[in-house]
Structures are given as C-alpha cells and as structure tokens.
Specification:
heterodimer; A: about 260 residues; alpha/beta; Rossmann fold; 6-stranded mixed sheet; 4-stranded antiparallel sheet; B: about 240 residues; mainly alpha; MetI-like fold; about 85% helix; elongated
C-alpha cells in the first residue's frame, strides 16, 4: 500500500469491546511527523483504551495500526520492536519503584536496546537534563514529587528515541500547582518537533500546542479539527458544550498556573 | 535439728547432680553442635531448593496459561495438604525406593523439605507479585521489554524485597520442621539429643540444650534476614509508622 512518507502513525478502524460493552467502535486517524494530536472526550469513552491499542498493550478486536508505514498489528516482527519506537507516558507515572530516576531512564537503553552501561548512563542523564531533573537523578520515585515523577517518566520515554510518544492523561493525577511543570516539559517537546498523541483535559494547553484536536464520544470520533475551529466554530452542539464545560472545570490556560 | 541435716544432704546431692549434668552436657556438646551443622545444612539446602523452585512457580501462577497455573495450584495443594512426616515417609520409604534411588537420609530430607517449602514459598512470592500494581508491567512492556525481561528486571526485584518478612517466617518454620527428619534417621540436633538422652537417662538437660540451640538458630537467622531487609529497603518508602 502506498503511504504518505510524512505520516508517522496511522490508526485505522480500531474496535474494542470488553465483554459485551463496546468501548471503541471504529476509530481512525493519522499523525504526521512533528504533529501534536490531542484527544479529548468524556471519561469512559475509550481514550486510554485507544492509546493502548496503538502499542498493543491492549489488543484491538479489529482494525490496524501502522508505524512509519510498517504494520504494527498482525505483524510477524516482535511487538517489542515496535514498542521501543512508541513511547508511552501514563497517568499514574508507573515509574519502577526500585530504581532511581536515572535507573528508570537507563534501564530500557540497557536491557532493551543493549546499550553499553556508561553510554546509557550518559544518555539517561541527558534526558533528565532535558526535563530539568539532573539534580534528582539519584533519588528514588518515593522521594520525588508527582510532577517530578511524571517528568522522569517523560525522560524514560524520550530516552528510547521514539518515533511518537503517547500521553495518557499525563497531568490528571497531579496537584494543580505541579501541572505546569509537566505541561512545560511536554510543550518543549512539541517545540522540538516530537510527534505526540495526547489524551488530556487541559484545554488551555490543548489549544496552545495541538495541531489537531480529536473529540471522541461513545467510542467514535465525533469531530476533529484545528483548536481554533473546535473552540470557535464546532460542527456539533455537543462538542461546544463539552468544551465549554471542561474549560470551566479545568481552566482556560495552563499559563495561569 | 535432724530435719535441717536431711535438708542439707538433699541440697548437696542436688548440687552434685547439677555438676554432673553440666559435665555431661559439656561432653556431649561437640556431638550436638555437629548435629546443628547438619540441621543448618538441611535447612539451608531446603530453603535454597524451595526458593529455586518456588520463584518460577509463583511467576507461573500469575503469568502463565491456565494449564500451567492449575498444575502449580495442584502441586501447592498436595504439598501443603500433607503433614511433613507423611511426606517424608511417602518419599523416603515410598517414591524414592520405588524409583530405585538409594538416597542418603540427609539428601532425601533436603528434597522433601525443599519441595514442600517451594509450595509455601511460591505463595509468599505470588502474594508479593500480585501486590505490585499492574502499571509496573505495563510500563516495562511499553518500553519494549519482553515479558520475561519485565519479570526479571522489574517485577522480581520488587516482589522479592517485599517477600523478605514472609520468607523469614518460612525460615523459622523450616528450621523447626527439620527436627522431624529424626524419624528417617538424619543425624541432626534432635536425633543426636535423643541418642544421648537414652544413654545417660538424663532427657531433661539434653533436650533443654537442644531447645537452646534451636532458639539461637532461629534468632540468628531471623536477625540476618532483618538486616537484609533493611539493607535492601528502597529509600523513601515507609511501611507503617510507630507514631501513627
């Protein structure tokens, strides 16, 4: 199949149901290189499941995923090959509790990429510096604040040199005053041209970094478009109502924090 | 007057008995201590075997397919369901002879206590593995680790740390269960104590000495494991506080 070279990630017609409940009912989208795509929608509409279907942490019932033109679903290659190239940042950080911040970032390099330990350490340190945590390198997760933990987990994902990073509500488990530092780190990535897919409720943030916002409801994409279009001139009344409500709840701008 | 004189004789006699007893124990002590080396070897061997078998069993019960998980549950049910003496007899006089294995009692005892301990240890480790959040596995897999790599590098280092207090319990139980191997003639502490007791007709001081050795071994082992737990503790974690 001929595919656009610029497209890093393509998701096609993803379906997933748990028992009898259909979570995803055919979701498709494409992410171009350097693009930041923000997925929004009411809770329970399958946003997290969608992200997990991309790197096959959840196996979709139907549908296909391509990474740089190679099919991730139904692949003969090991899925681990693809997961190395798809970074993931979780809502509750999921740092490895027995390792230092540095250990968390370098373990993938050493164990998965087989990198030399000294080189891995250098690279991990570099990634921690990128998120402003070089001074916390030798602290354990339990000694870090929530915002610091999430930045370590971003560094951990970055260290693998992924083609795309998936963020699953990266600020939802944080105290309000810690959200800013994490959003700042993600924003820096966007500026540096990292390709990203973000599930978030931070509308101000979505507005300022997203190239496109996808609104998912009941397992389907209801509407998608530029932030300007969705905020100012949505096709559906439902989109407008959701955006209004969520903006009231979470605030307009991340800069205010 | 007469009364106190008799009293004095009894007292002196008692002192003589005391001295006799101490002498007897003093003479028997090297023999008993050799027995405690055998006990230590037996307990060490059984715990090691139980660990080597128990860890994969725990992993299998959590992560393997239904057939393997069920087989492990069956194993656990069997070894936890029988008294240790019954297991010893079944294996030593039954299975091992049937298989034509002419194992020394010591080796047979290590095998039986070890395979039995594996059943108990697997449940300690399984509990620890299941107490870790699902997120640890998800994060490891999302980096591209295989399931085995994730278990080896992420799950086990954490689960084994949590297991130390439970494992310390298992140590003290196995130590005391090891005395049962007296029944198949392993020359451990109690077997030797019994020899001396029947020769000297002085069970009380002999068995008191045996008891003392067991108490010291329990204390020492548990202390070592406590130190290990402290040494391996992950900084920043507080499990329960006195003040609260």
């Amino acid at each position: 199949m001929q595919r656009d070279k610029d497209i890093v990630l393509e998701v096609e017609d993803i379906h997933k149901k748990y028992r009898e409940e259909k979570i995803l009912k055919g979701v498709s989208f494409k992410v171009k290189k350097g693009e930041t795509k923000v997925i929004i929608g009411p809770s329970g509409t399958g946003k997290s499941t969608l992200l997990r279907c991309i790197n096959q942490l959840t196996i979709p019932d139907r549908g296909r995923v391509w990474l740089e033109g190679e099919e991730v679903t139904h692949t003969k290659k090991s899925i681990n090959q693809f997961r190395q190239k798809i970074g993931m940042v979780f809502q509750d950080f999921n740092l490895f509790d027995h390792l230092t911040a540095l250990g968390n970032v370098e373990i993938g390099l050493i164990k998965v990429k087989g990198m030399d330990k000294n080189k891995a350490r250098q690279k991990a340190m570099e990634e921690l510096r990128q998120v402003g945590l070089e001074n916390q390198a030798y602290l354990y997760p339990a000694q870090l604040s929530g915002g610091q933990k999430q930045r370590v987990s971003i560094a951990r994902a970055l260290a693998m040199d992924p083609k795309v990073i998936l963020f699953d509500e990266p600020t939802s488990a944080l105290d309000p005053e810690l959200i800013g530092e994490v959003l700042e780190a993600i924003k820096n990535l966007a500026i540096q041209g990292m390709t990203m897919v973000l599930v978030t409720h931070e509308m101000g943030f979505a507005r300022s970094v997203a190239n496109e916002i996808i609104f998912i409801e009941n397992g389907k994409i209801l509407e998608s478009g530029s932030p300007y279009k969705l905020f100012n001139n949505p096709k559906y009344e439902r989109t407008r109502r959701f955006l209004k409500k969520i903006t009231e709840l979470y605030g307009e701008s991340s800069e205010k924090r | 007057m007469f009364f106190t004189f008799l009293h004095l004789i009894i007292l002196i006699k008692r002192d003589i008995i005391m001295i006799e007893n101490f002498l007897m124990i003093y003479q028997a002590l090297p023999y008993l201590l050799k027995g405690s080396l055998i006990t230590i070897g037996l307990v060490g061997g059984a715990l090691f075997l139980g660990f080597i078998v128990g860890v994969p069993m725990a992993v299998g019960q959590v992560y393997a397919n239904k057939f393997i998980a069920n087989s492990i549950s069956f194993y656990v049910w069997f070894f936890r369901g029988l008294p240790v003496l019954v297991l010893l007899f079944l294996f030593y006089f039954g299975l091992f002879s049937l298989l034509g294995l002419n194992l020394p009692a010591f080796t047979a005892a290590i095998l039986v206590l070890g395979l039995r301990s594996a059943a108990y240890q697997s449940q300690i480790f399984r509990g620890s593995i299941q107490s870790l959040g699902e997120g640890q596995m998800l994060a490891a897999r999302s980096l591209g680790m295989s399931k085995f790599q994730a278990i080896w590098n992420i799950i086990l280092p954490q689960a084994l740390r949590i297991s130390i207090p439970g494992w310390s319990n298992e140590y003290s139980i196995i130590l005391k269960d090891s005395a049962v191997t007296y029944a198949i003639g392993v020359m451990e502490i109690l077997t030797r104590g019994n020899f001396i007791a029947t020769r000297t007709y002085k069970p009380m001081p002999v068995f008191l000495t045996c008891a003392l050795i067991f108490l010291i071994l329990t204390y020492g082992g548990v202390k070592v494991l406590d130190l290990l737990e402290k040494k391996l503790r992950i900084p920043g974690y507080v499990f329960g506080r006195r003040e609260i």
